[in-house]
Amino acid sequence: MKILVYMGHPAHFYLYKNSIINWRAKGHQVEILIKKKDILQLLLDNQGWEYRNILAEGRKGNKIGMALGVIKRALRLNQIVSTFKPEILTGTSVENSIIGPLRGIPVVNCNEDDASVVPLYAKLSYPGANVILNPFVCNSGKWDTKATKYPSYQELAYLHPNHFTADKSVVEAYGIDTTKPYFVMRFASLKAHHDDGIKGINTQVAQRLVDILSPHGQIYITSERELEPQFEPYRIRINPLDMHHVMAFASLYIGDSQTMAAEAGVLGTPFVRFNDFVGRIGYLRELEDDYELGYGIHASPLTEDSPIRRNDGSLQPSGTNALYSAVETLVAMPADERKALFAARREKMLSEKIDYAKYLTWFIENYPQSAKETKDNQQDEAFWQQFK
User: Looking at the domain assignment, is residue 383 inside a domain?
Assistant: First the structure.
């Protein structure tokens, strides 16, 4: 089988990594396409995989630049499809959903953000997709009838215990003492098209968090954006392939990034997420509200007149005071008690979720029968057991 995987974000490398290994081990041909994005190229180079950068020159960040970028990538994707002749296209790209229908090639879109959070992306990508692979708790809006849903998260394609075991020696190679408490903070750039108007951790908030955490352990900051001089002493530069090991042994993760918060959650590391996406993304609501693996704090203050409700119906915590309170509560807990509590919560989550890499591998190589089987067995626990 010929499979074309189109990656548009570093998280997609991890999402597809184990499935690509599985497909190739079974003799399938896999072509990897990327568009220029952060550390994605570095991750693929470290893995030793060949790939094509479909728009190596990048694009301008304005709306005209975005539109021209889509057109250029679609034309180049069409050329690659003509020569590689894939039997299926998968990824999250808009271009898959343009070229797939034109060439009669099925498109499997993998996404775990609710359509209401990424409305432009949904409008451009979902109409041309044959299937949208979503977690059970994700809402794909008016395209939900196209969704094939599963009991897992994309982060469990690479951080499920079947695939990942945290290694202290990797962490200690960075001079981090794993026998003592340490905290990881992550500042996202919040510059994607769906981030417009979204608030996160600013300089004042970051300084207050440093003040709260400093008496309790070492602080390490990673950042997509330029750091202010006062935070440079806390900056740590970590090989992206090692980041999950560092996260796994941390006492706490704090950030305004969605993916890293979810990664912390599935690793059993307590997290505090602070931005205006809080309360709007189904899979993170489940991790925070139902499994209690972290705190979601809405950055802009909420009131009963403009509420966002948690899954239990209560008002979503919001504002900086709620953020500081959540962090203070977590760091005040005895370390052994906190570790045991979150480990137990993680085990409960894992007992109810599947290995998403195992499911994705099966789904793609057996499509379209796999889509029918999944829809016919959505509520059948025995069906999902094969992907544990």
Answer: no
Same structural domain for residues 70 and 41? yes
Residue 235 in domain: yes
Cα–Cα distances in angstroms (integers) from residue 123 to residues 140, 144, 275, 339, in the given order: 10, 13, 24, 42
Q: How far apart are CA 282 and CA 153, in angstroms?
A: 11
Q: Where are the alpha helices (DSSP H) in the chain?
A: 10-25, 40-47, 63-84, 94-103, 119-125, 168-172, 203-213, 243-248, 258-267, 282-285, 319-332, 335-352, 356-365, 369-376, 381-385
Quick check: 53 and 36 in contact, CB under 8 A? yes
Q: Is residue 387 part of a domain?
A: no
Sequence-ordered list of residues with C-beta below 8 angstroms from that of 336, at least 6 positions apart, any chain = none
Strand order in the sheet with 252-255: 218-223, 182-187, 252-255, 271-275, 294-298
Domain range for 294: 168-351
pTM, whole model, 2 decimals? 0.93
Instruction: Identify the CA nearest to 321 among candidates 230, 204, 235, 229.
Output: 204
CATH number at residue 204: 3.40.50.2000
Do the domain assignments include residue 385? no
Angle at 316 between CA 314 and CA 320, to 5 degrees: 140
Reported as a single tens digit per residue, the pLDDT across 88-124 is 999 999 999 999 999 999 999 999 999 999 999 999 9
H helix or E strand, kind and range, residue 88: strand 88-91
pLDDT (tens digit, 9 = 90+) per residue, 20-33? 999 999 999 999 99
What is the tally of structural domains in the chain? 2
